[in-house]
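Lab notes, practical 5.
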Amino acid sequence: MQQREVEVVNQLGLNATACAQLTKAAARFQCDVSLTRSGRKVNGKSLMGVVMLAAGPGSRIVLETDGPDEAEALIALAALIGEHFDETE
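Output from the prediction step:
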């Protein structure tokens, strides 16, 4: 199992578009993916779960991956968040 805390840095936070991108990216991996914010842990492959985190700009979330490709998944998902979900200003 691997974990990394990341900050939601894009201007719109985890809005519907960002949540869809995140869950689509997570679904590419075989490992389990979860996200935790303020004590609430959700399945990172569940669109509704990720939306329910209500993570606005500046929120800190913990990404957790567990399984055969956990390292690659963690790197890719953290990069997606760090790259502002390719959101244009």
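Observations recorded by the TA: The mean pLDDT is 94. The longest strand covers residues 60-66.
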